[in-house]
């Protein structure tokens, strides 16, 4: 089953009166049960592409369907509801709410979906244990290291059991051992529940976790490599 189907995706930004093509006609399919990595130099369009896939940005041309739904055709309200049910996003900047505890931050997607607070926090505590932060549930984000904040962001992306998980540099602030543990958790999550996982990364230490790797340059996918046979 296809989780993501992109056809002829074009995204153009206006930069100081100049048109800059961030995506120049992207075709990409991502299946459920697959871990797809997007790699390439900074500024090549990787983050723009995952933002379109996650419904955070609308493309200017082409179509992007997630589980058969065209996000660009939805109203903002419909998009929010769809993302809350089907998509988990790990932002490079974490985007944690500074006034909430770690457990409260992780609970947010469940609360949006109408889960009672006590049940949401119970699930949050459980998934924080899985990412090695069971002893930090009552801390504020400002009391955590960058690597710990990154793991909170990953826990928040997983907690509502989304079918598609999109990560922007999920291991960039992590040491090798913690990065490996987090990637194993993400990989197991995909395999056990037939989800799809898309990761933008420059971290060569985690390339081996990918089933396929799409190399991007200058707003285009220049090569897709199947690495699943190496696992």
TrEMBL record:
Residue span, ABC transporter domain: 4-231
Lineage: superkingdom: Bacteria
Residues in the signal sequence: none
InterPro entries the record matches: AAA+_ATPase (IPR003593), ABC_transporter-like_ATP-bd (IPR003439), ABC_transporter-like_CS (IPR017871), ABC_transpr_LolD-like (IPR015854), MacB-like_ATP-bd (IPR017911), P-loop_NTPase (IPR027417)
Keyword Iron-sulfur included in the entry's annotation: no
Record-level Gene Ontology MF annotations: ATP binding; ATP hydrolysis activity; transmembrane transporter activity
Keywords: Antibiotic resistance, ATP-binding, Cell membrane, Membrane, Nucleotide-binding, Transmembrane, Transmembrane helix, Transport
GO terms for cellular component: membrane protein complex; plasma membrane
GO term, biological process aspect, one: response to antibiotic
PANTHER family: IMPORT ATP-BINDING PROTEIN, TRANSPORTER, PUTATIVE-RELATED
Family indicated by similarity: Belongs to the ABC transporter superfamily. Macrolide exporter (TC 3.A.1.122) family.
Protein name per its UniProtKB record: Putative ABC transport system ATP-binding protein
Native organism taxonomy: Bacteria, Pseudomonadati, Pseudomonadota, Betaproteobacteria, Nitrosomonadales
């Amino acid at each position: 089953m296809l989780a993501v189907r992109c056809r002829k995706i074009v995204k153009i930004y206006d930069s100081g009166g100049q048109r800059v093509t961030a995506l120049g006609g992207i075709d990409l399919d991502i299946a459920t049960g697959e871990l797809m990595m997007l790699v390439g130099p900074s500024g090549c369009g990787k983050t723009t592409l995952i933002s379109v896939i996650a419904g955070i940005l609308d493309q200017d041309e082409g179509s992007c369907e997630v589980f058969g739904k065209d996000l660009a055709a939805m109203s903002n309200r419909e998009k929010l509801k769809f993302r809350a049910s089907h998509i988990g996003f790990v932002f490079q900047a974490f985007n944690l709410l500074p006034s909430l505890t770690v457990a409260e931050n992780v609970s947010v997607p469940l609360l949006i979906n109408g889960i009672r607070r006590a049940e949401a926090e119970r699930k949050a505590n459980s998934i924080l244990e899985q990412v090695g932060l069971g002893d930090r549930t009552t801390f504020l984000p400002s009391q955590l290291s960058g690597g710990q904040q990154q793991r909170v962001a990953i826990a928040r992306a997983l907690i509502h059991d989304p079918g598609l998980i999109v990560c922007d540099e999920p291991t960039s602030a992590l040491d090798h051992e913690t990065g490996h543990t987090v990637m194993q958790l993400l990989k197991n999550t995909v395999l056990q529940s037939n989800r799809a996982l898309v990761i933008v990364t420059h971290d060569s230490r985690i390339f081996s976790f990918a089933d396929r790797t799409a190399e991007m340059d200058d707003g285009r996918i220049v090569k897709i490599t199947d690495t699943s046979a190496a696992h």
